[in-house]
Amino acid sequence: MALKLDLSGKVALITGATSGIGAQQARALTAAGASVVLIGRREDRLKELAKEIRDSGAKAEYLAADLSDEGQWDIIVGASLNFFGRVDILCNTAGVNLRQHADDVTSESWDQTLTLNLKVPFMLAQKLVPNMRERGWGKIINVASLQSERAFANGIAYGASKGGISQLTRAMAEAWSKDGIGCNAIAPGFFPTELTAPVFEQSELADKLAQQTAIGRNGNLEDLDGPCVFLASHASDYVTGQTLYIDGGFTAK
Questions:
Q1: Residue 113 clears pLDDT 60, i.e. is over it
Q2: CB-CB contact of 243 with 187 (8 Å)
Q3: What's the total number of domains in the chain?
């Protein structure tokens, strides 16, 4: 029996697509047959990725936008729907980690972190659910973190936002799964991205973290491909409200 991993005819909207996990999700989903709408702040990066995807034979459009600006949310959603007439899959991947000690967090930095990491994923989903509901099917993939479950130094605001993502994902599932919309989250371990550059720039720290996994290494971005396609496809139609840790067994030890 064939697995239902083919995404032909589906359209995915990916935030934070300029680099790292978001860009890798775009590559994985288009390899599975989806068309993608890429959202991020750096137009040059979006243009480059869109060209890469188009050169591979898939369809890609992009929109440079600042997700922290609430006034742009309706513009993002409207443009995304106009590109291909639909959005079936929402990957809420944009995020920020300011790495501030608890003593140094300000009201402004707290709001910046919670808005981009927690508020934006909900509000974009809420705005796109009616389009998914019309077809009785959709997928929302949030990005949680190791800090959804445990505390890391200089991560109080980030950890609060990612703990919130796990609960938000469950609440989204409760609200929308009856309409055929699956809502899940991935929780990556340590992968080389712009967000984790301060970690990987310290080779001893990166090696120490690798040894804390059950597998014995940190992640490669390609390790995210299978889980991403699974959660975006019909193969996961009976999976909702879950947070999948893709961490090499970091949380198992």
A1: yes
A2: yes
A3: 1
Please give the residue range of the domain that contains residue 35. 11-191+221-246
Catalytic residue among 62, 158, 238, 245: 158
Instruction: State phi, psi for 239 to the nearest 5 degrees.
Output: -120, 120
Give the phi and the psi of residue 56 in degrees, each rounded to 5: -80, -5
User: Is 122 part of any domain?
Assistant: yes
Residue 174 to residues 180, 218, 233: CA-CA distances in angstroms?
11, 33, 19
Q: What length does the chain have?
A: 253
In a domain, 206, yes or no: no
Tell me the pTM: 0.95
Tokens of 7: 């995404």
What is the rounded average pLDDT of the residues 124-136? 98
Mean of the pLDDT values across residues 13-21? 96
Give a yes or no: residue 151 inside a domain.
Answer: yes
* pLDDT tens for each residue of 40-80: 999 999 999 999 999 999 999 999 999 999 999 999 999 99
Q: Cα–Cα distance between 9 and 11 in angstroms, integer?
A: 7
Domain with residue 140: its CATH number is 3.40.50.720
| 36 part of a folded domain | yes
Mark whether 158 is an active-site residue: yes
Of the candidates 89, 178, 96, 83, the one whose C-alpha atom is nearest the C-alpha of residue 132 is: 89
Percent of the chain with pLDDT over 70: 99
